[in-house]
Design goal:
mainly alpha, single chain, Globin-like, about 130 residues, binds protoporphyrin IX containing FE, 6 helices
């Protein structure tokens, strides 16, 4: 997963452009949430992926951080349903940019970590 991220991070603008194009196509409701310019949006993507990769070895630290992060996302206007859209856009972006270098094992690993994290965030922020 770190090598996937290293490849994507080497081209942050291209990665960001592809990611947001995928996200807005998959889920147009996410578009109004991103009010900044491309550079800001790119930084947001880097944050998101960096956050995940930085905490891979440390799931204990990840969960409390995820609760705070999830609560901030409610303030950004993010809905629970949009988490799946972001996950799908992320995988599609890696497939487009990395081609065969994004292996089936990479895909499984990213899906698992994203699912675990987004489940924890959705539960923390939207549980009745
Ligand atoms: C596992 C899932 C996610 C992670 C790890 C994540 C991570 C982050 C981080 C680190 C920030 C920087 C600001 C902060 O720390 O509060 C941020 C901001 C933001 N995120 Fe997320 N995010 C996730 C899911 C989502 C989803 C599903 C959406 C909905 C489309 C979203 C939309 C935003 C928006 C609108 C901002 C505000 C900043 C900006 O406009 O650039 N995020 N996210």
């Amino acid at each position: 997963m770190r090598s996937t991220w290293a490849l994507a991070a080497a081209e942050p603008d291209r990665t960001a452009r592809a990611f947001y194009a995928n996200l807005f196509r998959i889920d147009a409701s996410t578009k109004p949430l991103f009010v900044g310019d491309m550079e800001l949006q790119g930084r947001k993507l880097t944050h998101t992926l960096g956050f995940i990769v930085d905490h891979l070895d440390d799931p204990q630290a990840l969960l409390p951080a995820a609760v705070d992060l999830a609560q901030r996302h409610v303030g950004y206007g993010v809905t629970a349903a949009q988490y799946a859209s972001v996950g799908a856009a992320l995988i599609e972006t890696f497939q487009q940019l990395l081609g065969p270098e994004f292996s089936a094992a990479d895909e499984t690993a990213w899906r698992q970590i994203y699912q675990g994290l987004s489940d924890a965030m959705v539960k923390a922020a939207y549980a009745a």
